[in-house]
Each structure stands twice: as C-alpha cells, then as structure tokens.
Amino acid sequence: GWVNFISFLNQIIDRFEMTKEKYVYFKRLLPKESVYVEIDEDKLTQVIDNIISNALKYSPEGGTITFRVKLLDDHIEVSISDQGIGIPKDNLNKVFERFYRVDRARTRQLGGTGLGLAIAKEIIGVHGGDIWAKSQEGKGTTIIFTLPYDPVQEDDWL
Ligand code: ATP
Ligand code: MG
C-alpha cells in the first residue's frame, strides 16, 4: 500500500538502534517532508533489514552507518553506507547473486547464507526499482536502491 517512506524507514532504523550489540552510530540524512511511495511493506522491510544487518556485521566498533534518501525526478534513491571492510571491485555485482559470499574467511567468522542481497534485488525489481553497490576496500560500502516516486502526486496530499 501507500506509505510515507521516511517514517517507514525511521521505524526500521529505530528497531536496529534498540537491539544493536555493537557501538555503531546511525546518522540519518532524511528529508523532513513526507514521501509517499507504493510498496509491499513486509517485502521492503526484509530488504532494508538485510542491508542494515550486513552493514552492522561488517562495521568496526565506533563506525558510522549513514542513511540517506534523495528525491529525484521520478524516483527516490535510498542509500545505506558503512565504514566496514568493503567489497573488492570485481565482486561488486556478484554479491547480488544467490549464495555468493565474498570469501570463506568472512563466511566462517560472520555466518549467513549469501541470499540476502539476491532476495533484495528480486524484491526491488518487482517494485520497479534498481539496486547496486559501491565500495572501497578497507573504507566502506554503500548499498543504493531506487523506488518509483511521483513528486507531482505529492502535491495532492497537501
Ligand atoms: P544472508 O543475508 O543470507 O544471511 P549474507 O549476509 O552473507 O547472508 P548477502 O546479504 O546476500 O548474504 O551478502 C552477500 C555477501 O556480500 C556477504 O557474504 C558479504 O561477503 C558481502 N557484503 C554484503 N554487504 C556487505 C557490507 N556492507 N560490507 C562488506 N561486505 C558485504
Ligand atoms: Mg546478509
């Protein structure tokens, strides 16, 4: 259904804020106004949960995870950045494949099946959006996804 994406996202971040077991700071760079999008809330929750879990898993103690939402012409761009170990350039697209994990050492230490981002890609695709990763090894990772958005329709809500 139709939801204000900003309060929807804030609620998910709040839940992680309350349960996180690492000292990681959450920085929210979000629009002040409402941004209505039509989404399957359960499915989008699954997507965002996985991205935040990954970011926490690979973040150092004391790191910052930054959440941004940008309003563009016909879509919104949501990005979640961490200051963790990063992903090698050659693997940036592969992390969206089923069961792909960057290396075995990470698998052994940090668990997981390698499905989270593959599922995220499928869900975002069904919503008419896109998802991709940017990363610098040793510096951090940003996962970005888009969702269709109609800024004109936003005026009708006023
Ligand atoms: P699951 O999500 O199924 O529990 P997973 O987290 O290993 O397992 P994905 O979420 O699909 O699987 O991520 C795939 C791989 O991409 C991870 O195993 C990890 O190697 C790499 N990766 C994902 N997010 C990050 C991140 N923020 N920083 C560094 N590496 C990452
Ligand atoms: Mg995961």
From TrEMBL:
<feature type="domain" description="Histidine kinase">
    <location>
        <begin position="1"/>
        <end position="151"/>
    </location>
</feature>
<protein>
    <recommendedName>
        <fullName>histidine kinase</fullName>
    </recommendedName>
</protein>
